[in-house]
Amino acid sequence: MELEGVEIEDTFAEAFPIKVARVLITAVNEKWAMEAAKETTGFGTSVIGCPSEAGIDKILSPEETPDGRPGVAIMICHFKKDGVKGQLLGRLGQCVFTAPTTAMFNGLEAEETLPIKLHFFGDGFEYEKEVGGRKAWGIPMMEGDFICEEEYGVKAGVAGGNFFILAKDQMSALTAAENAVSAIRQVEGTITPFPGGVVASGSKVGSKKYKFMHASTNEKFCPTLRDKVEGSEIPEGVNGVYEIVIDGVSEEAVKEAMKVGIEAAVKVPDVVKISAGNFGGTLGKYQFKLKEVLGL
Amino acid sequence: MELEGVEIEDTFAEAFPIKVARVLITAVNEKWAMEAAKETTGFGTSVIGCPSEAGIDKILSPEETPDGRPGVAIMICHFKKDGVKGQLLGRLGQCVFTAPTTAMFNGLEAEETLPIKLHFFGDGFEYEKEVGGRKAWGIPMMEGDFICEEEYGVKAGVAGGNFFILAKDQMSALTAAENAVSAIRQVEGTITPFPGGVVASGSKVGSKKYKFMHASTNEKFCPTLRDKVEGSEIPEGVNGVYEIVIDGVSEEAVKEAMKVGIEAAVKVPDVVKISAGNFGGTLGKYQFKLKEVLGL
Amino acid sequence: MELEGVEIEDTFAEAFPIKVARVLITAVNEKWAMEAAKETTGFGTSVIGCPSEAGIDKILSPEETPDGRPGVAIMICHFKKDGVKGQLLGRLGQCVFTAPTTAMFNGLEAEETLPIKLHFFGDGFEYEKEVGGRKAWGIPMMEGDFICEEEYGVKAGVAGGNFFILAKDQMSALTAAENAVSAIRQVEGTITPFPGGVVASGSKVGSKKYKFMHASTNEKFCPTLRDKVEGSEIPEGVNGVYEIVIDGVSEEAVKEAMKVGIEAAVKVPDVVKISAGNFGGTLGKYQFKLKEVLGL
Amino acid sequence: MELEGVEIEDTFAEAFPIKVARVLITAVNEKWAMEAAKETTGFGTSVIGCPSEAGIDKILSPEETPDGRPGVAIMICHFKKDGVKGQLLGRLGQCVFTAPTTAMFNGLEAEETLPIKLHFFGDGFEYEKEVGGRKAWGIPMMEGDFICEEEYGVKAGVAGGNFFILAKDQMSALTAAENAVSAIRQVEGTITPFPGGVVASGSKVGSKKYKFMHASTNEKFCPTLRDKVEGSEIPEGVNGVYEIVIDGVSEEAVKEAMKVGIEAAVKVPDVVKISAGNFGGTLGKYQFKLKEVLGL
Prior knowledge:
4 copies of one chain form a homotetramer.
Chain A: E1 2-3, E2 6-8, E3 12-26, H1 30-41, E4 53-60, E5 71-78, H2 81-95, E6 103-106, E7 112-115, E8 127-131, E9 134-141, E10 144-148, E11 151-167, H3 170-184, E12 190-191, E13 203-205, E14 215-217, E15 240-248, H4 251-265, E16 271-275, E17 286-289, H5 290-294
Helix pairs in contact in A: 1-2, 3-4
């Protein structure tokens, strides 16, 4: 299979269920909505080693926010609903509530909601206020009054949608990965939780040499080991590989994100192949076949 | 006291001991060093509700980095040394190691060091390599090889250096706070851990109305409550207040950061007063008198 | 009249006919499309003292560009059609053609087109190529091949649409102006040609004191002269005023830009009034009444 | 010759005399100093087809500016002194004077100065004011008062310092060019006037096929023509080439800029060669040998 002259491997991405919340952060301008969003979603690349997975979903125009101000939508993902709640309390309370000019609102319609009660901080000076048809609280603070909703939808989503970008060299692979992340930024309901949206390292389960390691480098996917290991999966002429990992509120959202991300990546010169990561279909609940994702 | 026509209150900032590590992240360009730095230091505004305090210290020119590439210095702060170690393992392992083109090196000379052993991830394919006179490891991965040191200095630092910016209105206070943060970004060995470096909320210990709250809004410092509470500390004509909180590797670094931050803030039109936060000198080990900090 | 609590003066903006061209610049990523766009449209605030008026219209997603890459739409405006042609030759030839990874395409359907023949630069090595259903040229150069169309639509547009933002202080007025510019950036077919989209100076025709000056400061609109001149138009309590000037491909586009710009501006705290600039309706062909623009 | 494993061709850059002015633009923050600087220096890549060459020299910290605010230094270059004067009047008057919160000051000590008299715009309301030991004018305007000096140094400088970056592929060459420009941004007294600092097209004098063309593509330096023309200068395996062009206030400044730019470029993976452009030493007054520039 090919797309714009780039080989598309006939394989699939294997993904997992996860619980997802989505929050709309608004501010006096996009700069401050983004500052708050980045602080709130940092240290959130992988649930393996971070308190949660978290990332920026989408920049919101004033028409898309309850208070008519510029905003940024973020998502926070955890295997357990309680984990999502704890992370909302910690991350929103420490990183949005404290941020200049911000307000926050629920960004996910869902059957279940989690109460995130910040209004007690107002010590009795807080007040109820309708904002864009929503019931919110106003909490007096040092800069003025902070406005927030207190019920946040949570639902079953998908973690670990992914694809790989293989290029002749590292800089072409990186430029393609950057463009893929920019394109996915437009798809509502998805995040790319790794730094700048890109994964530079691949891993295999366990380790051959160090028995105490749960995971270690996947030597078959290391360009610099291509001629040193047996069965390398790195094609000749490939010197740089990046992975894009996607979490989404639904299979459809992840599928759309994979589609636009791959379409953006193959536009960059010297990208030679797109692949995806799976465990043979044995571990994950979801499978995203590149062929179907791209309609090939 | 006055500085450039702005009143300087004769008070002091009260601050606390904390353990600090400092890491140099380099990358192929400043963009990617900064992306990794932001992911690594996110969810790190206050040890009260975040896993640690963390922030960006300084942008590094190629001459300032061991591998001669562009870089960003970050700091990670925790009350306990073990806490710093756990946070370095988690944050560096998840957010620098996985980031495109990055390398990392120790950024703090100190008597004590913490071992952050990532080379086992290499599963035997890793190798030792000298970089800028330092002993580092090369670990083959998907994009190429990741380079890192494994011993990171940790020392006693200072948390909670601070000052307040009071202005006629919120936007002037915010612009002044932004400029203060930009100026402090140049002071080596200091971070402003809150979102975008700025704190919008002030708190008091406990709560009058809600006994289960450990902290609540400091109503005497809320401009919108100025005429509703007794003993408001908000002067007439002040409608916006922001706080800058500073962590540093030493008293000298925090003092210098307060100085340049205040000097930048008072340059902005409609800033009317600079103050600082303390607990009457009863709680913190360190006191930074504005008078001395500014040499007035 | 009021909008979100901000006074809207019952007045109108007076505007003029101008000739407009619109160009789509694409690149390997948005960064480089924007770099080229800024270089191309610089030194283009006002036809009074610049070679032309020029500015950035809109950031383009890959779906909006002929070659499926990220892009930026720009507009170039001159009183005369020949002036537009000369400016297209100079600006596109010097600032897009020379820029890394860029391509350029016509961005305006119009009855008349201007030939901008760059393919001769190829010295016979150039070749025709279809891109997105358009007839384009490929010109071999140092980085690879430059792709461009050679016929650019030109039509009668509108210059000098405008509104004024009056605020309690300069920083609030400036933040409101920034937000207005961001909002107008989304309206296709419009630019705000001044630096960062904002005008800091107002002028009157001629000068009372210096007879050799064709224009001089409009003292009645200077906050710092409020108490020094008779008949000041600056309301009490206003200390900062900015103007947004808009050029557009049509009256409808300018009207929409004024609407979204004003709606964004009034959201910023401490903005107190919106007005507009005119010459009593004696000079300009177009009048944009704020009442009608805002549907009040 | 080699630098960090990259071949350095034993050749030289040939450069020309030009007249240079340098202006310090300050603003309430770096954002607005930069917005004004970009507008002011746009449409300024080459004196061949632009009104002048112009670019951003350096970001200035508050300590480096007369008024203690953040700033950006720019340079404007023209073959003739009168040309510099006309360009200062036009560019500063239209693009700095009109920009929010800006002030401007002379940035070049020189024996000769050019009068740029903007104070008449004040229509008698202007006033003299000392700023940082300099004699300046305050001119009341809509946002507040504009502050500027009126005498700007002009001196003989150097135009056309340059080097070429050859890489295995376009994206590596581009990343290297970006890094070179970032490094040169730190060298006082130099600009890289092309879009984003980078030149994508190379030219030869005249044209073989089109006699009416004064310049055309240099086919020997086109990677895509490597196998189609005789005597191609593109080495095997090179697929992307960019040029960095440098103007400076002195030979020393240009030399230093070439040095730090090349040192930054060779750090990027897959860069294979650095060269420079000359006319055999027959046309330009200045020669910069790569060997001497780099101390090899």
